[in-house]
């Protein structure tokens, strides 16, 4: 193993391998470290990137780079809506329910594990699994040092986990309890015994996905954030919801745009973001820290005058290969579980439709945006029952893909359109699958390579009927 005297020296060494494929990095490893053997299991990316400095696969609990006390952790990145971001949370180590009760924060095992972390970043494209590791591209490093990253909040999170274990309510632990350091399910989530013959799911400490996205954006993409500076007991969703309904509810969009001096365009995605920033007194070019760190998204929902959604709500596109390879729970947790198990602020935008004629046929479109009004905004986070339903529907979607996707081209107007047997809203309560592509030629390439079936990119959508329930809840 190579020796490094400073973190900068370590980072500079890794810099030589930026933008190289893992396949080419393995050539370097074989030429320089003859005693390292890599196994092509699900942890292959981590093995390859740690072996760059001569680290052979091991289970040593001590820091990976001992003399500078640095832990190495791989962090997969994925391109979502043309922006690279961390794909998932970063698991740190298992929570030992019997040990944590006697620990102090200063000497806690997890504190030692996260005092200094060098994240080794690699891009894992949509539809590519660990079996395609040779195609992954190393994207450089990202250094995390606990003392510079609001250690007081991490400590509070850890104490919250410890309190539940001491109270013998570890079965009630949830990643949603914390802000940065989460207690995520680990492995298969098997039950382990602790305390006075109590049982709870095995869990691991992790840096939360929403936190890592902000950390990456700040330090790698140099995106600036601004804080709402909330009072201690005020949640970001309550504060933003209150402000939205105070400033926007029952008003015409044209009046709101005029008040906040926004050059609004119905086709520009930035229009509503700019309005919200100005209403919350946030700099136009900055993002809202508390919302993103808590994984809260703001979504506008086009609705009729009776508050009935005109459209289903889409989530990011994915490959059907992802659906085959992922599990709802476990080490390779479904991306969609991470997306849906967050918070959403829905802003109903009341739009009327008008009829127009094309080639002698009647069609409908939204009236000019200057006629739009804003309804009452609501906050939604799936409860346990809803999450259980979503899990069943996701598993049903996976079973359909595993049992064989069927596609047919049928006559549609002067041309044809593709129909398939993927999960339909008529068969579900909360989610379904629909295309999420530019056009019929924008196909799911990883799935085509796997199955030779041409099908457009897909995404999960929230059913219109379910969205209606949410935004009409009193």
How many helices? 16
CATH overall fold name of the domain at 7-152 and 213-218? ECO RV Endonuclease, Chain A
What is the fourth-level CATH superfamily of the domain at 7-152 and 213-218? DNA mismatch repair MutH/Restriction endonuclease, type II
Q: Overall pLDDT, averaged? A: 93
Q: Which spans of ≥5 residues are poorly predicted at pLDDT below 50?
A: none
Q: Gap between N and C termini, in Å? A: 62 Å
Q: Beta-strand percentage?
A: 25-35%
The count of β-strands is 22
Structural class: alpha+beta
As a whole number of angstroms, the C-alpha radius of gyration is 24 Å
CATH architecture tag of the domain at 7-152 and 213-218: 3-Layer(aba) Sandwich
Query: Residue share in helices?
Result: 25-40%
Gross morphology: globular
**Major sheet: size, sense and barrel closure?**
4 strands, mixed
CATH class placement of the domain at 7-152 and 213-218 = Alpha Beta
Q: Order the strands across the largest sheet as they lie in space.
A: 2-1-4-5
Which short descriptors sum up this protein?
474 residues, alpha+beta, ECO RV Endonuclease, Chain A, 4-stranded mixed beta sheet, 22 strands, globular
What does this structure look like?
With 474 residues, the chain is α+β, with helices and mostly antiparallel strands. It has a domain at 7-152 and 213-218: DNA mismatch repair MutH/Restriction endonuclease, type II (ECO RV Endonuclease, Chain A, 3-Layer(aba) Sandwich), CATH 3.40.600. Helix content is 31%, strand content 25%. The protein is built from 16 helices and 22 strands. The strands form 8 sheets. It has a 4-stranded mixed beta sheet with strand order 2-1-4-5, with helices on both faces. Strands 12, 14, 17 and 18 form a 4-stranded mixed beta sheet that branches. α2 crosses α3. It starts with 6 loop residues before the first helix and ends with a helix. The relative contact order is 0.09. The mean pLDDT is 93.
